[in-house]
Design brief:
CATH superfamily of the largest domain: Alpha/Beta hydrolase fold, catalytic domain
Number of domains: 2
Radius of gyration: 18 Å
Strand order of the largest sheet: 1-2-3-5-4-8-9-12-13
Distance between the termini: 36 Å
Largest sheet: 9 strands, mixed
Low-confidence stretches: none
CATH architecture of the largest domain: 3-Layer(aba) Sandwich
Mean pLDDT: 94
Helix content: 25-40%
Strand content: 15-25%
Number of helices: 10
Structural class: alpha/beta
Length: about 290
Amino acid sequence: MARIKGVELVRVTTADGVRLEGALRLPEAGVASRLPIDAIVMHHGYAGNFYGVYFFEQMAEEFLAHGCAVLRVNSRGHDLAFNSPTGRLGGAFENVDDCRHDWTAWTDLAEQSCFRRIGLWGQSLGAVKTIYFLAVQGDPRIVRAIASSPPRFSHADFMARDEGGVFSRYHERARRLVADGQPDAVFAADIPTNLLVTASVYLDKYGPEERYDILKHLPNVRTPLLVTIGGEEGIYPDRPDRFGFAGLAEQVAALASDQPNLHFELIPGANHSYTDRTDQLWAAVERWLVA
């Protein structure tokens, strides 16, 4: 571990041998948490990383000001690709189910750092993973969780769209590559979003099994959970987020109306990155945390 300008660089090794890095920041000495959590673990989206400058930067400052430690971390899906002792990883190569190893390893580190009330915050694919992790495995050490802009991965829904035929061709390309013994062949796709990905990963995320459909997993989450979606997500036909978000806000809101531990906030005017809407996002998060 190394400390640079108040940031402690930290590292974990997951149960399956993947080494991941992150950064821990502590509030000023003597400042007790005014929130129901002592530390928040922030998980990036597809091909992101812990040091990227986006809305987590401001959210970290808000948590620190409220006496809450911040742990910004990498998953095995950080950046587009990297070589690991366990094989090639990164956004193009990761299997989403393996996030359970990553989320557990970082929660272990938070506990080892003497935090007892741990929160999670995932964005985009990190939000999908957070919901999936809490639904299929869960962890009693996690007392609050936030999922910002989790796209819905639904094969049936994608096929029913006007551009379902284009999605079907991508899916068939991935299926044929796997059938021909090339599961690690990388190709570019722009549906359901713009990405570079292996054939096997494309099938894992977007295949008919729908393993990561958040609408299926949200009812199985028992941890208090806030889901946020930007008001501009999925409403423009020329935007890459259209497939994952069209109609999703209304569906999540309906689930939240019947699920006491689930809360939903639509952030008006916000895009997928909450550009120029971080104040509104923090206001929603703070309201939920202190309620």
